[in-house]
Amino acid sequence: MENVEIVNPSVDKKNLDSDGATLSLTLSLESLDLTTIPSSVLEARYLKELYLDYNDLRELPSIFGQCFPNLVKLSAVGNELRKLPDSFGDLCKLCDLYINENCLETLPDTFCQLESLQNLSVVGNSLKAFPDDFGKLKCLRQLEADENELKVLPDSFGQLLMLTKLEVGTNDLQSLPNIIGKLDSLQVLNVSNNKLLDVPEELGDLCNLTQVDLSSNRISFLPKHFNSMSCIRKIYVDVNELKELPDWFSNMVHAEEMSVKDNHLTKAPLLESFGHMCKKVRVLDLGGNFISELPKSIGHLENLEFLHLGSVIDELERRNFQNGNWLYKVPENFSQLAKLREVHMDENQLTELPEDFGNLTALEFLDLGQNMLHDLPSTFGNLCSLKTCLLSKNHLQLLPSNFGDLSNLVDLRLDNNQMAELPESFHQLIQLKTLDLFNNLLTEIPGALASLISLTRLDLDENKFTISEDDIPSIWFKVKYAPLDPDKKDNWRGRRRQNLLDINIIKITSTTEYPESKVEEPKYGHNAYQSAVARSWSIWKSHDSTATKREVFHRQEVRRRNHYASDSEHEDDDWAGSTEALECLSIVSSSSKSSTDLNTSNPSTPCGDGEDWDHELETDSPYNVTPVYCHPQKIRSRGASPIDHTFVPDDLHGVPFVKAPVENVVEEGQFDDVDE
Asked: Are 131 and 152 in contact (CB under 8 A)?
């Protein structure tokens, strides 16, 4: 496109001298399918900002650096650049450079001559190393080099004394240079998703860090000292191999988000001072460890909104696998967390909740699935903000009498418990859309279901119904029309209609099959019960799309990861280094719980012909146990806090539910008077 003229792009002519000469000019050539830079552009030596984003450029002219002596900002994001010309170092005034999403493998040696460079972003290239003299970029303040192939950072990095932000996540780094401890101005450090086996002790010398992300590495130890503990705001050390936390981790007085999920933390990794020192914490994620005790001071975290102590695996149908912690109880002052909105404590060993648990009136999401709970505290009905309540796979026999006071409840999972009846107040849950009562001890259809006018998903399979199918009561909605208009005598809207009380009722059928065949419904009625049962397939999801049965939970078959396995057994095994694989492993737990306390009356139901869960992963496990299928661990972007993802549970059985289309009632002769 040699015919591109400079007069067409956006030009900023606000600053002119007395002779009318342009002091600043911005040229935008974005998304023009350019394969070369027009010669007329190369003659614009006065340019200060040049945008070449989202074109098809494979290279820049060899004289590029000599053509723009006044250039301050250059953006060439989303091209196919494979290298930069040697003349690039002649851009002596360049301050901001954005060359993300290209194909760069190296930077020219002359790149280190850009002594005015302050912001550099090379995200999404194929860089294997920075030039050895990279430290000559004395003015560099922000460096973003995520998603490359960097294996090492040059020792000259220690000379970048003005650097405030260093992001080198998703690379192949195996170590950080000790010289990193000299970057006194550094505030943001992201080295997530690399191959780090440790971090240098010198990292603790940095005293201005506000955000640190060390997630998805193989780190076993953190520095013994951390001079930034008084100013750190966010720290993430997820998916590593930490077995303990240093003392400073419990004394970060300004920390707001702390996450060490999916490590090997055991016993009580946090000090008793934690709740008193870390009062500003809003997000605390300790899921997927082996923690058996929380500090008694946790109730003093007055700003805590998000707490994760459960499983980190995003499973389909949880098939008797446990990946949470080892908590048997929570501290008595747990109910003082007045701002708590979301709690994950699934897959632990909880036997009871504090009696004043109902004081958590801000709580909106609660996951207590796969624990050892026999009952809920009498104050449970005081959780007036609760919308999602997951109580699957416990030993619950009765719900509190005031359970119906949970007026905002939308999603309730009670599958795999020992429920024989529902409380009388259950009919008050008029907002409830999903109700999972799979594999309980119900002997008759609860009458309270007739009042659940919002119900869209229901699973009653694997219960103890003693009545015949024909005697099962039916529930339906009355169809409501707009008031009749007597003035519209010749219009169908004014005609008399059939008495809606004479509606054919569809009896409930016991089925777990996918609703592929259309269910015949009455002409004017809509059976809420039948519709909810038909949609019960969306509450759970099997790996085999043809499977029509849910698997019954047997607690004595629960398996877990083994944190005592020796690292030497698989240190040379690439399979062992896979986060996805480790999350899928488990060891049979030796529970001393009497089998009489377990709901094992129903035999395990096979998952369908042709389905083989245990062979969907490699069987050559370093732990020598049967692997269990699960989704790979997804790396969460740090652009948003986990608190922004509230009410989206990690381990719901089902897929996103799509509400069935509403069918309009059609009467005989309805459209007879429509003009053609």
From this structure: no
In this predicted structure, which of 215-219, 252-256, 465-469, 646-650 has the lowest mean pLDDT?
Answer: 646-650
Specify the pTM.
0.75
Q: CB of 388 within 8 A of CB of 411?
A: yes
- From start to end of 3-72, where are the E strands? 26-28, 49-51
Q: Measured between alpha carbons, how far is 155 from 62 in angstroms, rounded to an integer?
A: 30
The alpha-carbon radius of gyration of the chain (Å, integer) is 31
Residue 367: beta bridge partners?
344, 390
Mean pLDDT within 101-117: 96
Q: Cα-flanking dihedrals φ and ψ of residue 526, to 5°? A: -140, 115
Using H for helix, E for strand and C for coil, what is the string for 96-161? Answer: EEECCCCCCCCCCHHHHHCCCCCEEECCCCCCCCCCCCHHHCCCCCEEECCCCCCCCCCHHHHHCC
- CB 57 within 8 Å of CB 36: yes
Assigned token pair, 427: 């009919």
Among residues 656, 598, 647, 630, the alpha carbon closest in space to that of 416 is found at 598
Which positions ≥6 away from 517 have C-beta within 8 Å? none
HEC readout, 297-336: HHHHCCCCCEEECCCCCCCCCCCCEECCCCCCCCCHHHHH
Name which of 39-43, 336-340, 667-671 the model is least confident about: 667-671
By residue count, the chain amounts to 676
Whether residue 652 is predicted with pLDDT greater than 50 in this model: the reply is no
Asked whether residue 7 carries a pLDDT value surpassing 70, the answer given is: no
Q: Which residues pair with 412 in a beta bridge?
A: 389, 435
Q: What is the mean pLDDT of residues 428-456?
A: 91
CA 463, 467, 471: angle at the middle one, nearest 5? 125
Residue 274: enclosing H or E segment and its boundaries? Answer: helix 274-277
The bridge status of strand 165-167 relative to strand 234-236 is unpaired
Mean pLDDT of the chain: 77
Cβ-contact 432, 449 below 8 angstroms: no
Token pair 């259309």: residue: 518
Whether 425 contacts 402, CB under 8 Å: yes
Q: Which residues contact 627 (CB under 8 A, 6 or more apart)?
A: 581, 584, 585, 614, 617, 618, 619, 621
Two tokens, residue 537:
């397939």
Residue 352 in tokens: 């009871």
Longest distance between any two alpha carbons in the chain, whole Å: 97
Distance of CA 648 to the CA centre of its chain: 8
| DSSP 8-class letter at 477 | B
Residues 607/611/613/619 CA torsion (nearest 10 deg): 150
Tens of pLDDT, residues 155-183? 999 999 999 999 999 999 999 999 999 99
Task: Classify strands 342-344 and 365-367 as parallel, antiparallel or unpaired.
Answer: parallel
Cα–Cα distance for residue pair 534/609, rounded to 1 Å: 22
Beta bridge partners of 142: 119, 165
- DSSP 8-state class, residue 582: H
Residue 348 C-beta-side C-alpha neighbours within 13 Å: 29
338 burial level (CB within 10 Å; 0-12, 13-18, 19+)? middle
Q: Determine how many CB atoms are found less than 10 A away from the CB of residue 456.
A: 17
- CB 164, CB 141: distance < 8 Å: yes
DSSP states of 606-623: P--TT--GGGSS-S--TT
Identify residue 102 by its one-letter amino acid code: N
Q: What share of the chain is helix, strand, coil (3-state, %, to 5)?
A: 15, 10, 70
pLDDT of residue 418 exceeding 90:
yes
With cut-offs at 50, 70 and 90, classify the pLDDT of residue 646: very low
Q: Which residues face 477 on adjacent strands?
A: 526
